[in-house]
Write a structure and sequence with these properties.
The complex is a heterodimer of chains A (92) and B (367).
Chain A (H helix, E strand, L loop, with lengths): L8 E3 L4 E2 L8 E4 L2 E4 L3 H7 L7 H11 L5 H17 L3 E3 L1
Antiparallel strand pairs in A: 1-5, 2-3, 3-4
Chain B lengths: L9 E5 L26 H14 L3 E5 L9 H10 L3 E6 L6 H9 L4 E6 L4 H8 L4 H12 L4 E8 L7 H11 L3 E6 L4 H5 L1 H4 L3 H17 L5 E4 L20 E4 L5 E2 L20 H7 L1 H5 L16 H4 L4 H8 L15 H13 L18
Parallel strand pairs in B: 1-2, 1-8, 2-3, 3-4, 4-5, 5-6, 6-7
Antiparallel strand pairs in B: 8-9
Classes of the chains: A alpha+beta (92), B alpha/beta (367).
């Protein structure tokens, strides 16, 4: 499922990032772990139930200023949909 | 032998073999460890720290029934303090609201609750104990907390025809994940093989139902299932390969590459009371024994799939061929595949009967 711009994605129950001092940064979930770096980490760190998808897009477009803004937006929507399908995210 | 070039990602901590259930397909070995031999709290705390330092990300507290250990909450807290993701693999007995609250407060990340069937009488028969109604109550309690929640249904010849009811129960409970795990034929399940192995028709039907359900529930409940390997063309990558991803610690503190490794003859398993987990993982004979490819016979040795399935399961090779270094006999390329075919012929010769008499089951004993 694709998120709406107004959704506030939040890590699903049982899914959390490991601690900041633990490297590599990893999304931990039941029976799975997903290593995160670069944009994937920037996105997941913002899936806190407070940021809307639109806000995540704006913030990432700033961080990755050299990339095409529409490409950044598309990648974020795709990645959020993927995490949702893995049951790692709730769209609230 | 190949030295370890990787570290384990998951630690399976079998805290005890004691259990209020007596499931006919229990994965514990037939020779069970008694309470007085169990590893004490301090040792477990140390081992959890050693595991995290070794690179382990997740610990599964299991058993037997891990709730039988009064120090479980303390161990969950120790695991979280060490930086580990913490799962409880449980029958849900004996648990109440207070203890569950304590476990969650201690940092439990994920609760995996087993079910034996959707129908109470059958479920209790397979478990050898009155437990189904208790589990329904526990499921309600778990739902009140914001933690990971998985239902695990063990499926087999005697309950596959209730699969749609199990999916119904799953939707009613509403966990994040549900596993439909075909019985694996080790330990007590191997002793009950003829009463548990599904027919080909049952299997085909079950896969149709499960693929449909996975699609229908996509984004709501993650449905996971695997084909039972006797019916597969190639073996499973057992434990992700021997000594590659997982270490298991028995209630007595021995470190094993898998649940069933004690069936392998002539193996000596080191104990965390005597050596560090890192030392055992990297250098012990048991972990080196089937690591890498040097031990492989033909056809594995030159097979393209050897990096995918690592020669399959050593314990299955042992149970069926009495040679732990044989190619897993479920492989269609294995010289011993005829042994698996013979078993399948036998279990497919008769339709799945009404459940066998209780007296016909070989129930798991208690240590």
């Amino acid at each position: 499922m694709k998120p709406e711009s107004t959704n506030r994605p939040r890590l699903a129950p049982g899914c959390r990032l490991n601690e900041k001092h633990q490297q590599p940064r990893t999304l931990l979930m039941p029976e799975r772990a997903l290593r995160l770096n670069g944009p994937s980490l920037e996105i997941v760190e913002r899936c806190d139930g407070a940021h809307t998808v639109a806000q995540i897009v704006i913030e990432l477009q700033k961080i990755y200023g050299k990339a095409k803004p529409e490409k950044v937006e598309q990648d974020i929507f795709d990645y959020l949909a993927l995490l949702h399908e893995k049951r790692a995210l709730d769209f609230e | 032998m190949t030295p370890s070039d990787s570290h384990p990602l998951a630690l399976v901590a079998e805290l005890t073999h004691r259990c209020p259930l007596h499931c006919v397909y229990c994965s514990n070995p037939e020779e069970l460890i008694r309470r007085e031999s169990e590893l004490p709290t301090e040792d477990w705390r140390r081992v959890l720290k050693e595991a995290a330092a070794l690179g382990v990300l997740q610990v599964d507290f299991t058993g037997g029934e891990p709730l039988a250990r009064p120090d479980l909450t303390e161990l969950v807290r120790a695991a979280r303090a060490a930086g580990l993701y913490t799962s409880l693999i449980t029958s849900g007995l004996p648990l109440d609201e207070k203890r569950l609250g304590d476990l969650v407060a201690a940092g439990l990340d994920h609760f995996q609750l087993s079910f034996q069937d959707a129908h109470e009488a059958n479920a209790d028969e397979f478990a050898g104990a009155r437990s189904h109604v208790v589990k329904l109550r526990i499921a309600e309690l778990v739902k009140r907390h914001r933690i990971g929640f998985t239902l695990n249904f063990v499926i087999h010849r005697q309950n596959l025809d209730h699969l749609e009811d199990m999916l119904g129960l799953t939707e009613q409970i509403g966990p994040g994940r549900a596993e439909f795990a075909h019985v694996q034929y080790y330990g007590w399940a191997f002793a009950n093989l003829d009463r548990l192995m599904p027919t080909r028709a049952q299997l085909d039907r079950s896969l149709e139902i499960l693929t449909g359900a996975a699609e229908r529930l996509r984004g709501r409940i993650k449905i996971e299932y695997v084909v039972p390997d006797y019916y597969a063309k190639y073996p499973k990558a057992c434990m992700g390969g021997w000594g590659r991803k997982v270490a298991l610690i028995t209630p007595a503190g021995e470190v094993l590459p898998c649940h069933a490794a004690k069936v392998l003859p002539g193996m000596q398993f080191d104990n965390v009371r005597d050596r560090s987990l890192r030392d055992i993982w990297e250098r012990s004979n048991a972990f080196q024994k089937f690591r890498g490819e040097d031990w492989m016979p033909e056809p594995c040795r030159t097979c393209d799939r050897r990096t995918l399935d690592f020669g399959g399961c050593r314990c299955q090779a042992m149970l069926l061929t009495h040679n732990p270094a044989a190619t897993d006999p479920v492989c269609s390329l294995a010289p011993d595949r005829h042994m698996v075919d013979k078993i399948l012929q036998r279990v497919n010769a008769t339709p799945p009967p009404a459940a066998p008499q209780v007296s016909e089951w070989m129930y798991r004993r208690n240590p």
